[in-house]
Design a protein that fits this description.
Alpha-Beta Plaits, alpha+beta, 2 domains, single chain
Length: 204
Amino acid sequence: MLYELATLSCPLLALGQASDGAHAWIGDGDAKGELLGCWRTEIGTLGRLLMLRRFEVPEDMTAERRRALLSSNPFNAGNVVTAIEMESYAPFPFLPPVRTGDRGGVYEFRTYRLRPGGLPSTLAGWEAAIAPAWEYTEHLVVNMYALDGAPRITHIWAFTSLEERSGLRARAYGAGVWPPKGGPEQIVEATSTIALPQGTSPLS
């Protein structure tokens, strides 16, 4: 199983149009993969539409990537989209599949660029920390490592509010169960974005 995280950039007032086009693109009869979530950025770099899809086999992801690259109107939003990034990921093997539905409505996307060779230690630390930090990690939607570009991981979290997020993180840090042991030492650069569901999003 593989994941694609697509980021569509557009003017702020065109987000609705881009969302409508992208949903139609992914819902097309010839499209492959399963839409798990669609969000608009709210805190961080604005004017971004984030779309997470799941693919059962690599060939389906490749076919969708080719469909977008060879289209004169990718994601049915080529007239308003100014940039498209399509990133390929594999899930952390010890985590369950993404569970869709109402997960709180406030999502955090965290990407850590890792030192070369830093992924094995990162995976080991996360696997050991998931259960002890369950009060916090039950809000984890997915964590995945990149299959292209710089070594990095991207994890998505769901909360009912920023206050809930802050409280959970403070308690986990205070209890010494978070962050995962050996993980922070591998991080070269970290970014965080808060996003809200956009359009018909299975993760709401």
